[in-house]
Write a sequence for this structure.
């Protein structure tokens, strides 16, 4: 059947809705109107599943579609475009739009070569979007479906982390993962397996199905564990666990730390990083992009990499190559205090089939700094910027994961937060030259396991750029190493003493929960942190149990002093922390 | 590394730490007071309102005045105080406690026979009460706001929602009112304010500050900056009532939703923690389950009156003395257990054979008029007293004469009828 025929057949299920479509070079454009947002997602996904579809641009609207908001956004962009299109900032070989873990990884990889490269990031700091609210898991590659790009890059990428961590000096631990098979695993199908058959299947068949899946996906070394061995691996795991599958490759990182390390190393090797720089349009010569217009002016360029995450579809459209629509998928993560670290040794999850639609992919993970995180959930949301947390979702997480770790002290919850995944309807990474703009590379749809795949994504993206004509001449002076900010937490007393002699601020503890000194905060500011949250991501100040209750004011004062901005103007992330002076006091 | 040998190291220079230090110095011990902040006085430094010292000095002082009394005393006694000095590690070695601390000047190793922890409490965060929505700029705790306004002359916002009907929330509401906040609203889940009645009158009613009982914040709204909050009515079990959600526009949300002892460091050190108080498990002299490690003040449980917190410091100082003199303990500690109507209490057990009468503090779990507070040892009622009124928001203090217990075994049960 032709692609047209297949799409038509899928849309027939939605008779009564006013739907139409066009197809161009394998990309399906959907038009019309549906009732609900859920339906909008469902149709997009159904079409995205069709073999041969290379992208779905879902122009269908639903009832309550924020037309006004989108028009305002476009007008705002147009205005900034007009004001800035004639101001040239500079000329670059490659411009990377987006300073998340993908943008910074590509930038760092490109900094090996004799190229002029810049990252354009609309926020006040790098790693403020999807990257910062990720659970930091470096997946092994078993979960990803076969014949997908994400499987290939995941399996390869996770093995590259060790070298990354060594060169870039971020915290990385290959803790491995343990998947529990319990009486709940196939609860829904229990009726088909009478009596002892159910347990036998769970104990002796299912584990090997997982091992087979791993083998087919290219993940070796996966082991089946039974009996007391399970509890040697995970002493607090559910007592009714029948079998477990151990995967050695799984690792953990702090995702924002990875992005910060990549950005710092890229900058050291000559990449320019422009924060507070929002892309509002493109200058074109025929099909080719010649310049990227931002609120800072126009960046002339030879190549553009679209690593804009949640906004990749808007960037693609502005550039003239709309090939996908992002459907944001929000995930909530719950974080526990460091004193809970002893309860979990591996990335821990219970296999339950079919997967719960809102919690699939989630689990219990240790973090490199000794905390424990539960989640994330997965909920489709219409608004890309919707990082709000529904308290019921927190409850759902707390209830769901309690079954596999019942003794865990849940009252030690210290924070929860939401992040939004930038999924496309084809549910795979989109890393390819744009179909209708020859010097634009899409690096879009980087959802889970994007972080785990990041090193391989960067390599792959550069192969693509080379195919597009970018010449790669190695720099002899490329330095792959990045020094971390020294941390009082990890220091021997003699080291601290030496540092205090040089600068007394190494002995001034500002964040008591996480043991962060004034010198560490100064170093973060020196390395480019401009906001409270940027300092937090680089030093952990404010990440402890009081959640900044005691140190926020102190840190704000340091930032104010160092940057020479009024105390009341110090930013949290995008907005000032405080409002203004009390009655009777002048600025 | 500088080594300093002491009889006792007091960790924390707030009112309780100061009181413990002063008392120990008076008893003739060589004490070091270690404070991580820039100055002594703890939380009282930012409490410019009055009401401190009514029990201890018979007058209502401001926070800094109250603290000043003890600071002068400690200075007068010539005690070694270490400011901006943060204890980074503690361990037991060769019968001594070794505390490593850093300051801008140096790294110090204290070698001490005993430790008094006076690390106070922290504010509960919005996360601990499961408030949904976002966390933009404009979300604060009450203590942070108090500091901001009183010490730095900064306002959190112009339209402020205060969450919590306890003393701290009420006091902050008054401060913000006086400093020019245009719109204020106080919400809390209880049917009425839970703080001291004098604060309800003097902080809220006198100024006509609006408030809504039986109301909680369901969600905070705003991506970068607070735009408002979704309020919802709750039933008597604090469950949200569907359909009563309401968007309240504001630019700041201030949480005053309780205090939690700063006991994590003690917990990491291996001290038993009471899940009720979330502070350490202690004996009648406020010694923790670690030998020679005492805990005082709000680290035990947040006190309503600083005067009571200070009393625990005085008692603990005597305990340190007993510990250093190797005074005999019972063969087995005599546990104190809560009855049905006791929400939390300290101390948790009686360990010494002899000593002063026992001061107990507790919060009832229910409101009760004409309440009888009793202590039973086995079937025998060893003590009782009456109060016209008890309620969860008031921390009760009772004193049990030690001779009523003697050397008897069993367990003591504290209850309210």
């Amino acid at each position: 059947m032709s692609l047209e025929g297949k799409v038509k057949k899928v849309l027939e299920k939605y008779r009564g809705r006013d739907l139409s479509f066009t197809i161009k070079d394998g990309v399906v454009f959907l038009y019309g109107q549906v009732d609900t947002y859920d339906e909008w997602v469902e149709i997009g996904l159904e079409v995205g599943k069709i073999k041969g579809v290379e992208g779905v641009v879902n122009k269908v609207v639903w009832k309550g579609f924020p037309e006004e908001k989108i028009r305002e956004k476009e007008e705002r962009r147009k205005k900034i475009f007009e004001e800035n299109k004639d101001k040239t900032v500079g000329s670059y070989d490659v411009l990377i739009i987006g300073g998340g873990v993908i943008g910074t990884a590509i930038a760092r990889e490109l900094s090996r070569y004799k190229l002029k490269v810049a990252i354009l990031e609309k926020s006040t700091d790098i790693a403020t979007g999807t990257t910062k609210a990720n659970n930091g898991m470096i997946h092994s590659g078993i979960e990803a479906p076969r014949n997908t790009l994400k499987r290939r890059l995941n399996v390869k990428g996770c093995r590259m982390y060790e070298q990354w961590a060594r060169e870039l000096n971020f915290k990385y631990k290959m803790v491995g993962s343990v998947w529990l098979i319990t009486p709940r695993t196939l609860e829904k199908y229990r009726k088909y397996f009478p009596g002892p058959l159910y347990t036998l299947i769970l104990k002796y068949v299912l584990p090997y199905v997982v091992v087979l899946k791993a083998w087919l996906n290219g993940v070796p070394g996966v082991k089946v564990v039974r009996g007391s061995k399970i509890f040697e691996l995970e002493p607090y795991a559910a007592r009714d666990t029948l079998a477990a599958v151990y995967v050695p490759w799984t690792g953990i990182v702090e995702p924002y730390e990875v992005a910060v390390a990549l950005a710092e190393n890229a900058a050291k090797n000559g990449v320019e990083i422009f924060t507070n720089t929002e892309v509002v349009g493109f200058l074109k010569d025929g099909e080719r992009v010649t310049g990227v217009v931002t609120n800072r002016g126009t960046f002339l360029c030879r190549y553009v990499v679209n690593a804009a995450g949640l906004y990749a579809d808007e960037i693609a459209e502005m550039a003239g190559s709309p090939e996908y629509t992002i459907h944001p998928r929000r995930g909530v993560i719950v974080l526990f205090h460091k004193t809970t670290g002893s309860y979990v040794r591996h990335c821990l999850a219970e296999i339950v089939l079919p997967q719960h639609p809102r919690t699939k992919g989630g689990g219990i993970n240790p973090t490199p700094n000794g905390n424990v995180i539960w989640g994330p959930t997965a909920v489709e949301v219409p608004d890309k910027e919707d990082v709000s947390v529904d308290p019921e979702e927190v409850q759902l997480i707390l209830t769901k994961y309690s079954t596999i770790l019942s003794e865990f002290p849940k009252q030690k919850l210290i924070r929860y937060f939401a992040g939004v995944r930038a999924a496309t309807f084809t549910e795979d990474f989109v890393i390819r030259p744009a179909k209708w703009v020859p010097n634009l590379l899409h690096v879009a749809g980087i959802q889970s396991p994007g972080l785990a795949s990041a090193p391989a994504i960067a390599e792959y993206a550069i192969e693509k750029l080379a195919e597009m004509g970018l010449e790669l001449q190695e720099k002899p002076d490329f330095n792959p190493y990045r020094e971390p900010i020294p941390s009082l937490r990890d220091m021997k007393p003699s080291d601290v003493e030496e540092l205090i002699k040089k600068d007394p601020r190494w002995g001034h503890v500002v964040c008591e929960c996480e043991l962060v000194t004034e010198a560490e905060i100064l170093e973060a500011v020196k390395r480019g942190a401009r906001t409270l949250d940027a300092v937090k991501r680089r030093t952990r100040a404010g990440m402890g149990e009081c959640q900044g209750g005691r140190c926020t004011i102190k840190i704000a004062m340091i930032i104010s002093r160092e940057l020479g901005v009024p105390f009341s103007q110090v930013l949290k992330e995008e907005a000032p922390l405080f409002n203004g002076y009390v009655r009777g006091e002048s600025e | 590394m500088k080594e300093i040998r002491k009889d006792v190291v007091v960790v924390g220079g707030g009112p309780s730490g100061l009181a413990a230090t002063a008392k120990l110095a008076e008893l003739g011990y060589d004490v070091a007071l270690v404070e991580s902040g820039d100055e002594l006085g703890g939380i009282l430094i930012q409490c410019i309102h009055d009401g401190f010292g009514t029990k201890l000095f018979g007058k209502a002082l401001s926070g800094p005045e109250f603290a000043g009394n003890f600071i002068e005393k400690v200075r007068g006694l010539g005690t070694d105080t270490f400011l901006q000095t943060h204890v980074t590690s503690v361990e037991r070695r060769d019968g001594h406690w070794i505390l490593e601390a850093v300051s801008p000047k140096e790294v110090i190793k204290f070698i001490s026979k005993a430790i008094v922890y006076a690390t106070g409490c922290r504010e509960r965060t919005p996360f601990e009460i499961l408030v949904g929505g976002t966390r933009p700029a404009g979300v604060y705790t009450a203590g942070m706001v108090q500091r901001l306004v009183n010490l730095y002359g900064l306002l959190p916002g112009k339209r402020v929602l205060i969450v919590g009907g306890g003393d701290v929330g009420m006091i902050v509401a008054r401060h913000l009112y006086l400093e020019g906040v245009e719109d204020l609203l106080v919400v809390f889940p209880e049917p009425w304010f839970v703080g001291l009645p004098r604060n309800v009158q003097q902080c809220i009613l006198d100024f006509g500050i609006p408030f809504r009982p039986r109301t909680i914040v369901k969600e905070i709204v705003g991506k970068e900056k607070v735009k408002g909050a979704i309020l919802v009515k709750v039933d008597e079990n604090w469950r949200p009532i569907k359909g009563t959600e309401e968007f309240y526009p504001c630019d700041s949300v201030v949480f005053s939703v309780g205090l939690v002892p700063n006991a994590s460091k003690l917990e990491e050190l291996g001290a038993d923690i009471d899940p009720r108080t979330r502070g350490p498990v202690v004996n009648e002299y406020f010694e923790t389950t670690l030998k020679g490690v005492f805990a005082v003040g709000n680290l035990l449980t947040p006190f309503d009156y600083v005067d009571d917190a200070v009393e625990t410091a005085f008692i603990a100082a005597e305990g340190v003395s007993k510990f250093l003199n190797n005074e005999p303990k019972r063969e087995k500690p005599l546990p104190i257990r809560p009855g049905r109507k006791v929400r939390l209490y300290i101390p948790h057990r009686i360990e010494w054979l002899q000593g002063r009468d026992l001061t107990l503090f507790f919060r009832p779990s229910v409101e009760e008029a004409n309440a009888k507070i009793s202590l039973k040892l086995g079937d025998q009622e060893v003590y009782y007293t009456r109060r016209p009124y008890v309620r969860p928001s008031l921390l009760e203090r009772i004193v049990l004469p030690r001779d009523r217990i003697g050397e008897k075994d069993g367990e003591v049960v504290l209850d309210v009828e």
DSSP finds 15 helices and 27 strands in chain A. Chain A has a mean pLDDT of 95. Chain A has four domains: 3-65, 83-132+255-325+426-467, 172-247+328-419, 488-569. Chain A touches chain B through 55 residues (CB under 8 Å).
